[in-house]
Input
Amino acid sequence: MLDGEASELIKRACAGDALAFGLLVSEHYDRIYRLAWRFAGTRERAEDIAQDVVVKLAAAIRGFRGESAFSTWLFRLVYTTATDSLRKSQKLYLVDPAKLAEMADGPSGETPETAHDGRELWAAVRALPPQQRDAVTLVYGEDMNHAEASKIMGCTEKTVSWHLHEAKKRLRTQLEAA
Amino acid sequence: MIDRQLQSLKDTPVPPAREDAKARAMAAAMAAYAAAPDAEPVRSGSRPFAIRHGYKIAASLAALAVIGPMVALLRAPEPVAVRDQSAAKTKMQTSPVAKQAAESKVAPPVVLVVPDAQQSAQRRVAQAARGAADSATSHQSVSPPAAQAAAPPAATPAPATPPPAGVPPPAKLAAPSQQAMRAAPAAKAAQAECPTGRVCATVEATVRKREATDANAQVKSAMFASLSLAFEAGRLPERGAIDPLSLINAFDYPLLGFEGIPLTIVSVPWSKVRPIVSWTEGILDQTAEVVFTVSCDRETVRGLHRDVHLRPRGVAGYSAVGEETKDTPALHRVVGIFAVDHIGAGCRPGLKPPPGSKKFSAVLSFDAVSAAVPLAAAQIDVRFVIAVARFADLLRGTAENAAAFGYGETITLAEGAKGDDPSGERAAFIAVMRKAQALTR
Output
C-alpha cells in the first residue's frame, strides 16, 4: 500500500527516525487540520484537535503495519480524535480569553462557530446525530466515497449509506422548515 | 435539492491553521515521538472487540468470578464454604497446607486457586509478582516476623484451605486475606504450587506487585511525558509548548464536585483580585442544559446538546485554565477551572438555566466575594488542580506574582493535596515539579 518517497518516509518514521517523523507530520499537518476543521468548525478547536492527532500519531506510528493506506489510517486517527473532542465539547466549551471581551461587547453577537463557518448548512450538519454528521462530513465535506468513509468510521458501506439517507431526510425537514 | 446543497460542502473554504499552532503541534509531536516506546501496537480501522466492549467483558468476568464459585460449591459433594464454622475449622486444620502451617507455626496465606482457563494469565501475574519481590519464596519460606505480622491471632484457625480441584474459594474466604493485605508490606511475595497441583498466587504476591507498580507510576499524558523528558535532559521546555489544559487533564480528581458543592470560588495567595473559580457538574443527567455565568449578559457559546454561557460583563476578563471531564455509565461530570478577574460584589457566579429552558430547573447562585474560601480551606482536589495550573503558569512564565508563590510554594500546595494517591500519579507529578524547581534555581 505504500509507495515512493512517502513510503520511505513512513518506513523510516516507523523505524524510529525522528527526522523522518518530523517531515511526515509537517507534510500531513494541513490535511489533518482540514479534516479536524470540518468536524470542529472553528480554527481554535481544529488546531487543538490537530495537535492531539500528531501527538497520538507519535505514539502510534511505530505500530503502523501498512495494512491499509497511510492516509486512511491517519484519517481514522483524526476521525476518532475529533469525534472524542466533539463529545467532550458538548459539555464545556473553552474559549480563548482574549476573545471574551469581544464576545461580550461585539455588535454581531455571533458565536465563534457561526463567525467562522458562516453557513447554515454546516451548522445543520454539525447538529445531526453523531454518525450521520460523520458520514456527511466525510462523504460530502471531504469528497470520500462510501468505502473510504466506512473504513474511517469503522462500519460497513451499507451503514454509511444508511446514515447518509437518514441525514438527508433530517436535513431536508430542517432546512425546509427554516 | 438537498444533494446539490450537500455537494457544495466540500467547497467551503477552510481558514488556514496559524503558524504558531502548527509549530506548537510539531513540538508536542516530536517530544511525544521521542518519549514513545520503540514499538507500540496501534489501533487502526475498527477497534478490537475487547476495547469496544471492554466494560461488558469486565462485568461478565466479574459476574462469573462471583457466581462461578458459588455454583461450583453448591454442586460439590463436600462443600468447604464457611457456612458451618466448626466444620470449616475441622476441615481447615486437616488440610495439608494447614498442617504445614501448624508444624512451622506460620499461618498459611490465603491461596487463590486458578481455574484452568485462567492458568496462563495467572502464571504471568505470579511471575511478575515474583520478579517484583525481593526474592521468590514459597509458603514455607515466608520470613517468620513478616508471616507473624500477617497472621491472625494464635487462636484463630488457619484462614483458608485449598478448595477442591478446579473450584475457586468462595468469596467469604477472602475476608482474612484483607488482614494479610494490610500487614503485607513486610511480607515476601509468595508463589507456590498448591496441593491441587495448580498454579497458585498468594494475595501477598498480588499486593506486592501492585506496590511495585505504584512506585513507578507514570502520568499517562503526552504533555507530562514531554515535560519529564525535558527535565531529564536538564532543560526547561519551551514556554509556548506548555499547555495547562493537557496537564490538568492528565490527572484524576475523584473527589471534585462530589461533596455537594458544584461551584467553588477560591481566593489565592498570589492575587487579591483574581480568585479561581472551580465549577463542577456532578449529578446532572445528560440531557440537562447548564449555564455557567459570571454575571448576566448574553449567550455567547452554544454547544450541540449543552449550552455553556460565558458572560463576562462585570468582570475584566477571565481565563479558562482548564477542564476535566469524566464519564461513567451513571453520570458524567465536567469541571471547569477559571481564573476570574475582579469579581465585584454584585457579581453572582452560579448555575442557571438558559432563558426559556425547561430542561434544568435548579438555580444555584451565590455571591462571589462572600463565598470565596481561602486556598488552604479548599477541597483537596481543588487544591491539587490549582497546583497543577499554577505549575503550568510558572513554566509558561505567565504566573502572576511568581516571586510570592513560586515552585516551592506550589510543591508544598501539591504535597498537601496529594491525598491517598492510589495510582501514585500525584507523587510522580510532585517529583517532576521538584526537577523543574532545581532547574530554575
